[in-house]
Amino acid sequence: MTGGGYMRLALAGARRHRLRSALTCTAVALAVCLFVGALGLQRGYAASLARGLDAMGYHVLVTAKGCPYETATLVLRGGSIPMYVDESVVDTLRADPAYGAGTRFLMQGIEPGGGGPFTVFMGVDDQVRELKPWMRLQQGSWFSTAESWEAILGYNAAEVLRLRVGETLPIPSLGRALKVVGVFERSGSQDDGMVYLPLASAQLAFGRAGKLTGVGVRLSDLSRMGGFLDRVFETPSLQAITMAQLRGAVLDLLGAARALMLLGTVVAVAIAGLGIFNSVLVSITERRRELAVLKVLGASPFQVLTLVCAETALLGLAGGVGGVGLAWAAGLVSDDFVMRLLPYAPPPAAGHLISVGLWHALAGTGGAVAVALAAGLAPAVGACRQPPAAALRDHR
User: Fold this and answer.
1) Within this chain, do residues 99 and 231 fall inside the same structural domain, yes or no?
2) N or C end of the chain, less CB within 10 A?
3) Cα angle: 342, vertex 190, 64; to 5 degrees
C-alpha cells in the first residue's frame, strides 16, 4: 500500500464519525493554542518592551523614591505619577562626571472635558529633541516660547482628539485652552499618544511650580553607569532606574506568567491526549471486522499499525494547524486585553503583543502530531495483535 493509500483510508476513517473527530481536533487545537500563545506572548512582549524602552531616548530615569518599576512603567505607558522631585536636582545631575545629556519632564493625565478621552500631557524642555532626534514634526513647528500655551500632539493623539494645527484643545479643568502648533510623525512608541506642551506651562497649569516627574539622563560613557547610580542613591529623595534593569525585571515577571500558562498547557495536552486515546480506541473497536478483513487479504501487522497511526497523526495535524491559526487570530485582537491583564505590558509599537513566529507554528503543529501518535500508539498496537479469526467471529 502506498503512502497515498494510507492517507485515503485514514481520511475515510476520520470522516466516518465527524462529530467525534471534530471534538478530538478541538481539544488538540485548544492545547496547541495555549502553547503557541505562551511562546508568542514572550516574543511579542519582549520586542514591544525593547522598542518602548529604546524610544525613551535615555539610559537612566531619575525620579522621587518609590516603587521604581511602577514609576518607570507609568512613564513608559503614560500616566499620572503622584511623586515629584525638585527642579534643583538637575544642577546636581549635570555636575556629575558621568552626565552626558538630559531632559526634564512633567507628566499629568487628565480628562480634557466634554466627554473626551483620557489624555496624558507631557511638559518637556527643548533638550528632549536632542535625546529623541527621531521625533520629527509631520506638520507645524516647535513651541514659540518656553512659557507659551501651545501644544504639539503625538500622531495617535491627533487622530483621537481630531485636532489639526491652528485649532485649540480646551482644558476646562485648567480653565485654559492650548493652541495646537504641531503634530509629530508616527514613531510607533508611547510618544504617539501624548500631548506635549512647554515644561514651564505644564508646571503652572498643573500647580507644580519647580517640580518634575523625572529627569531622563543619557550618560557620556556607559561604563560609568555604576558610579552614577551610586551617587544618585546617596541622595535621600532620589532613585535611579536603568532601562536595562526595568527590562530584566519586567521580563522576569512575564516569565512567571508564561510558566503558569505552560502549566495550563500541560493539563490541556493531557486532556487532549486522553481524548485522542479514547477516539482511536473507539474507532478501532468499531472497525475490528474491517481491520481483520485487511489482515486476511494479506495486510501485515506493520501495515495495520501504519494505517491506524496515519489516522491518529491526521487528527493531531488538523488540531495542530487549527490551534496555530487560533493563536495567530487571537494575537491580532488581544493587545488591549493583554495590556489590561499584565500591569507592565507596554503598548505594541509594531506588530502585536502575541507574535506567532514560524518556529512557534512548527513546534505547535509538530508537537500536536507527536502527542497524537503517542496517545494512539497503545490502541494501534492492540489492533495489530488482534487475531483476524477472533475479530470475524465476534462480528457474526
Assistant:
1) yes
2) C
3) 75
Among 236, 265, 297, identify where a domain stops: 236
Same domain? 122 vs 21: no
Same domain, 21 and 83: no
| 11 and 108 part of one domain | no
* pLDDT score at 281: 80
Grid coordinates of 225: 553607569
Torsion of CA 255, 260, 261, 264, to 10 degrees: 160
**What is the extent of the structural domain holding 32?**
3-52+250-394
Is residue 61 situated within a structural domain?
A: no
Cell 514572550, residue?
A: 42
- The sign of the CA dihedral 223, 50, 127, 146 is negative
Amino acid identity for residue 137 in this structure = L
358-385 and 301-333 helices cross at what angle (nearest 10)?
A: 150
Provide the β-strand partners of residue 178. 169
Number of structural domains (the chain) is 2
The secondary structure of 296-317 as a DSSP string is: HTT--HHHHHHHHHHHHHHHHH
Quick check: is 141 in a domain?
yes
Residues 273 and 189 in one domain: no
Q: Which residues of the chain have pLDDT under 70?
A: 1-16, 49-56, 66-82, 111-117, 172-174, 245-258, 288, 290-299, 335-351, 386-396
Q: Is 184 exposed, middle or buried (0-12, 13-18, 19+ CB in 10 A)?
A: buried
| Unique residue bearing C-alpha cell 512582549 | 45
Positive or negative torsion for Cα 187, 191, 193, 197: negative
Q: pTM for the complete prediction? A: 0.58
260: Cα separation from own chain's centroid: 16
For 211-236, b where at least 16 C-beta lie within 10 A, e where not — what string?
A: bbbbbbbbbeeeeebeebbebbeeee
C-alpha distances out from residue 275 to 281, 375, 376, Å: 10, 9, 10
Amino acid type, 224: R
pLDDT tens for 323-361 read 899 888 887 777 666 666 665 555 555 557 777 888 888
Bridge partners (DSSP) of residue 108 are 121
> What's the residue count for the chain?
396
DSSP for 175-198, written as a single string? TEEEEEEEEEPP-SSGGGGEEEEE
Distance CA 331, CA 289 (A): 46
Listed in order, strand segments (DSSP E) in 187-318 are 194-198, 211-212, 214-219, 238-242
Q: Are residues 179 and 99 in the same domain?
A: yes
